[in-house]
Amino acid sequence: MKKETNLTDISFIGSGISTSFTLLYFLEKLKQTKDVESKISINIIEKHTEFNVGIPYGSRSGFSTLLITSLKNFLIESELELFINWLNKNKIWLLEAFKKEGGILSKKWLVKNQEAIENNKWEDLYIPRRFFGCYINFRVNNIIDELSKNGIIQVSFISSEVIDINKNGLFYKIHLKDNSIISSKKVVLSVGSLPITHLCKNTDVIEKNNFLLVNNTYNPDLLSNLNKIRTFIDNRSNERTNILIVGANASALELIYKINDRPQKEENKTHFTFISTNGKIPGSFIDEEKQKIFLPKHLISLKSHNNLTAKEIAEATFKDLDNADEINLNPASTVEIISKSFGELLAHLDLKELEIFACEYGNLIGKRQRCAGSHYTSVIDDLEKQKRFEHISGRFKDITNEHHKLIYKDTLTKEDKVHNTQFHIVINCAGGKTLEDQSIPDLHKNLIDKKYCVPNKSKIGFHVNQSLEASENLHIMGPMLAGNIIENKAVWHVEHCGRIIWLSKIMSEILFKHFYSKRFVCN
Q: Quick one: angle between helices 310-326 and 331-346, nearest 10?
C-alpha cells in the first residue's frame, strides 16, 4: 500500500552541493525577512544516507582526497573568507581525521604545507575535499536548526530514491522507491551528473582469478574499493600487477594517487596505464617564460570579424590549443589566456549560436584544458621515472576474455588495436552516460517520456527557461543545467564550485520571489 504525505511547499531531489548552496542562500533570505506569515515546508530527498555534501565532499570520497585546484580558485572570495574562518577554528580535528586515513603521500602533503597551515595561509593549498564537505554540512544544518526553532521552516530529510514524478493539477506527486508518495508545490531536481558508463558488464565490481574490474569507485565508497584494490595487489605477492585506468580526468588522478598513498613506503610491483582520447594528463606546471610570449593568435584574429559563429570560435580555440601543444605549453599555463580570449568572443554571439557553443563545444574545449595540482601529477612523474607508467591515446572498447588485454580505437590512426599487456586490475574513470542511452535512471526516463523534461542538444542536460524550469514549478539545478543559456551566459559545465554558487544564487532568488514577491521586506 502506498503512503502519501501532506502537501509540501518545496521538494529538493538530491542533496549535493547545488542543493546545499541553494538552500543556504534561500534560507538566509528568509532569515532576513521581517513578515513571514506562514511556515514553509521543505523536503530534502536523497537516495544515499548522507545529506548536504554529495559524492565529492562526503564520506564516499573519503577524508584524504585533495582538491584538484587551489582553494583560492575553488571558491569565490566571499565564500572563501567564511570557509577559511571556519577552517581556522576546526583544523585540529580535521587534520587528525586526514592523518588517520592517509598514507605516505598524505604525510608528505602535511610536511610540505605545515608552515602554511600553522599560519592559517590556506588560499594556495590543495586541501582535502572532505574539509569543505564538513563545513557545508555544518552551515546547512545550522541555519535549518535556527529557522526551524523560530517557526519559519519545517524541513524533512528523506532517505529514499525518487523513481517517478507525476503532475497532479497545481502540484507534483513524487514517487519513491519505498512506495511512498510525496506531494509538492515546487520541485527542484538536483541529482548531479548522469551515472558513469560501465565497462564490459553492468555491475560495479567483477572479481575472478587474477582479475579485478572496478566500475564505480565511489560505490559503496572510495575507501572500500581502495582496500579491495590494495588487497588484490598484496595477494599477488611479488608478481607484477598491471593496472589499467580508463580516463585521465580528476577521478583518474585521484585513483592513481590514492593507490600509491599506502600506509607505509612499500616497493610493490605495480605498473599503471592510462587510456584517454587525448593521451595527456591534466597540466600542473606553469611555464612562466613561455606563458609570457604565448598569444592565442587564432582567437585574437576573430576580434575583427562580424557575425561570428560558435563553430568559428571553437575551431580557433582548438588551433590555439594545438599551438600550445607544439611548444609543450600545458593547460596550466594557457587556460586563463585562452578562456579569457574565447570568453570575450562569446559575448558577440547571438543566443542561437551561444546555445550551439554550450551544447557542442564547451565540454570539448574543457577536456583539453584540464589542470591539476602537482601533488597528483608528481605521482605520475615518479612512476614514469621508474618506467611504471604509460599513457595510451585512444578510446576504450573492451577487455579480452582470456588474457584481459585492452581493445581500443587508436586516436591517431582510428584503427582498432589490442594492447599486448595482460591487465590484472581495470578501473573505470571514464565519463558518464548521455540522455540518449537506454540505461539512464528510471527517473530521467520517466521525465523525458512524459515531456516534463526535454533533453537539449548537449545530450547531458535538460532545457530550462530563465526561471530554471523544465516544466512549470519543476526546476533543474546542478550538472543537468548543461547546454543552457542563463542570464545570457553559456553553461556547459556545472561541476565547478564557482559556477554552482552563481546558479544557486539565481535559484534561491527564484524560490524567494515565488513565496514572497508581494510581501517581503529585507534589510
A: 160
